[in-house]
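Good morning,

Attaching, inline, the backbone tokens for the sequence recovery test we're adding to the shared suite. The designed sequence is right after.
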């Protein structure tokens, strides 16, 4: 296996994937006007920088052939979610029985590749499969957008212009290096590419030539894509031989406020607070560090999250995403559903509802600061104080039920 990283010994301005940047949620409703009078002026402005990065005129013209800014892509930057999935709803959709069974079938089909990849990068096969399943449903849908045209649309539309212009120029370099032909460089509307949805800068930093054919082809080579995902996780500190976390049971009268204040401590210390792994099993290493995660508060499953959970979040900076990846990996391995189900009647809170919740806490004298819709430590402390005063379970969870109680 030969890695062709030397082709790309260039500065990387951003290595995070677009999904980790929250490109849709919170985007301004009114975007800046395009910085160029017309498309041809824009294309002409890109050429000198592309040329300085070694892109030939022939590759450049092929990449921009037929380009017209996409109104559909620009509309996606303005989209505001009208409803919010709870963690339970998100995980149920992401870890469907079909996705689990397909992952198990893929584990058999790509067993040799996964075995070599695990030996080389130290990432459990099921985690790599779960990333693949979450990103593109095992390659069945890679986005369908021409990546050059998508990135050019965002750059021309003056949306996060510096970031997307660098990704556009990097994508042109990938074409120049011959890793993929322009028509096959497909991805999401925001430029995440191939089976494992790498942004171009992440491709430069982490893509792997598993087959040793001189190309890092995450679009057409499943081995290249799986090895690339494993390399990404390994490069961000994956701890070989450890899992992402455990579902746990809490004792009666558990001090949720103390748990929030403690943050991360050893599993042995959590055990001293009465926290137990579900199913009567013990933790394999009491010295591992973990933090409590209660996505549905006291009314749903509770987890102790280990360091690898945060490595998964480097792929997509979302607790829901990382939990779904970890759970999907476990289910592919043959582990059953969570012991405690998520509440079926829970509704997610929109940003405006979270702001309302904070405002109501302030009005009742539980000062949480200026309402911003972000449930941080100060808001959580206010929630716990209100819950205690109201005789509720003081778990600090910002729920639809809590909002109703405050109203």
């Amino acid at each position: 296996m030969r890695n062709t990283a030397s082709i790309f010994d260039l500065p990387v301005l951003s290595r995070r994937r677009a999904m980790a940047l929250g490109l849709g949620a919170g985007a301004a409703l009114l975007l800046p006007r395009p910085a160029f009078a017309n498309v041809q002026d824009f294309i002409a402005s890109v050429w000198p920088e592309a040329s300085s990065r070694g892109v030939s005129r022939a590759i450049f013209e092929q990449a921009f052939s037929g380009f017209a800014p996409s109104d559909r892509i620009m509309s996606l930057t303005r989209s505001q979610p009208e409803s919010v999935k709870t963690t339970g709803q998100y995980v149920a959709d992401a870890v469907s029985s079909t996705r689990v069974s397909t992952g198990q079938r893929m584990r058999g089909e790509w067993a040799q590749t996964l075995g070599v990849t695990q030996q080389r990068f130290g990432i459990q096969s099921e985690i790599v499969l779960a990333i693949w399943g979450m990103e593109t449903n095992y390659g069945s849908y890679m986005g369908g957008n021409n990546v050059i045209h998508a990135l050019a649309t965002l750059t021309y539309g003056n949306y996060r212009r510096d970031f997307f212009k660098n990704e556009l120029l990097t994508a042109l370099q990938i074409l120049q290096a011959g890793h993929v032909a322009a028509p096959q460089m497909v991805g999401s509307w925001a430029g995440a590419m191939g089976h494992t949805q790498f942004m171009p800068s992440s491709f430069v930093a982490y893509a792997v030539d598993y087959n040793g054919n001189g190309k890092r082809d995450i679009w057409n080579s499943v081995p290249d894509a799986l090895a690339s995902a494993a390399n990404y996780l390994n490069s961000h500190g994956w701890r070989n031989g450890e899992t992402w976390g455990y579902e746990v049971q809490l004792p009666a009268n558990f001090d949720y406020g103390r748990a929030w204040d403690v943050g991360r401590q050893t599993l042995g210390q959590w055990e001293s607070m009465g926290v137990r792994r579900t199913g009567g099993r013990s933790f394999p290493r009491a010295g591992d560090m973990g933090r409590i995660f209660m996505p549905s508060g006291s009314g749903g499953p509770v987890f102790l999250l280990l360091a690898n959970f945060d490595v998964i979040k480097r792929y997509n900076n979302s607790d829901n995403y990382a939990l779904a990846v970890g759970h999907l990996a476990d289910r592919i391995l043959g582990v059953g559903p969570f012991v405690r189900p998520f509440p079926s009647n829970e509704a997610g809170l929109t940003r405006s509802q979270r702001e309302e919740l904070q405002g109501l806490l302030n009005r009742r004298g539980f000062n949480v600061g200026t309402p911003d819709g972000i449930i941080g430590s100060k808001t959580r402390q206010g929630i716990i104080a209100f819950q205690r005063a109201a005789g509720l379970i003081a778990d600090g969870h910002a729920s639809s039920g809590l909002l109703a109680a405050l109203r």
